[in-house]
Design brief:
The protein has 311 residues and is of the alpha/beta class. The chain has 10 helices and 13 strands. It folds into 2 domains: 78 residues, Arc Repressor Mutant, subunit A, CATH 1.10.10; 214 residues, D-Maltodextrin-Binding Protein, domain 2 (3-Layer(aba) Sandwich).
Length: 311
């Protein structure tokens, strides 16, 4: 007796895209905002997908949306494939000479604010047919799954990921800073050993800071008076005279120029990682991606991260 084949339902890809967006965003309204369509369109798409599959994908209440067990199983199967499809479609050769379309970027809040913001401004001014969507996050983002074109990332060493292409663009140099008002009140340390007598601004979970100068090494043993988990908060505490702290040199550059911060022990530095420009491994890179990459690389050649703030 011949084997009967079960015919799989034909599913519109846009229905799947709406389902994935609701799961990722946590609500129909947020998913609609992300997709740029009315909420009713997303609701109808998910309902149509549920009807096609004969499955309930979300528990809906007036206050929240929760993915069902069947929905989670479906998401785990289709989300990676959807990301691959979106990446493949975005790789189609450009039909026009001028870069156009939406460039999706992700980076950390500090690099985004101090480095990428200026690059985005130059990019959109130079290429008026482009748009930029930027996500600032300290968490590692899956570029392929989430459909990002580029990332500017910090890592302790070289990156090894066959799905990604990484190009080193700079080093993170950590140095010591304090406000003139604090130094006037407590004095200026002349050696790493004198730091233990000062108020220290530290970071939650950070290992003791190791500084080096001309082959010599020193581990900072000072006990923090303030502990935080954000570079910009730490910089603000330093600006207002809260103590001495370590910051990446590119974050302190503007404050040094304005006299709001003083660079302490300038010979002593810590190299804590590298900054890389990362993009998915693709055969064809869209013009909008190449154009932004080249612009950012030129900016960083003119003002290397490792030299900013080292005056």
């Amino acid at each position: 007796m011949p084997t009967r084949l079960t015919k799989a339902p034909r599913i519109d890809l846009e229905l799947v895209r709406a389902f994935v967006a609701v799961h990722d965003a946590g609500s129909f309204s947020a998913a609609a905002l992300r997709l740029g369509v009315p909420r009713s369109t997303v609701s109808r798409a998910v309902a149509a997908l549920e009807e096609s599959l004969a499955l309930l994908l979300f528990h809906r209440t007036t206050r929240r949306v929760a993915t069902t067990a069947a929905g989670v199983a479906l998401y785990d199967r289709v989300a990676p494939a959807l990301g691959t499809i979106d990446a493949a479609l975005s790789d189609l050769p450009d039909t026009e000479e001028e870069p156009s379309g939406t460039l999706r970027l992700t980076t950390t809040p500090d690099l985004g604010t101090i480095v990428v913001a200026e690059a985005v401004t130059r990019y959109t001014a130079r290429y008026p047919r482009t748009q930029v969507e930027l996500q600032l996050s300290s968490s590692l983002v899956d570029l392929v799954r989430d459909g990002f074109d580029l990332a500017l990332r910090v890592s302790p060493g070289p990156r090894r990921d066959s799905a990604l292409i990484a190009r080193k663009v700079g080093d993170i140099m950590i140095q010591l800073y304090a406000a003139p008002a604090y130094l006037a009140r407590r004095g200026t340390p002349r050696s790493p050993a004198e730091l233990r007598d000062h108020d220290w601004i530290g970071f939650r979970g950070a290992a003791p800071l190791q500084l080096s100068a001309s082959g010599a090494r020193s581990v900072i043993q000072a006990r923090p008076r303030v502990i935080c988990d954000d570079m910009f908060f730490a910089r603000e505490v330093l600006r207002t005279g809260g103590g001495i702290g370590a910051l990446p040199s590119f974050i302190a550059d503007g404050d040094l120029a304005d006299g709001r911060l003083v660079h302490l022990l300038p010979r002593w530095v810590s190299r804590t990682g590298t900054v890389s420009l990362v993009h998915p491994s693709r055969r064809h890179i869209p013009r909008r991606v190449n154009a932004f990459r080249d612009l950012l690389l030129e900016m960083l050649r003119q003002r290397p991260l490792s030299s900013i703030g080292t005056r």
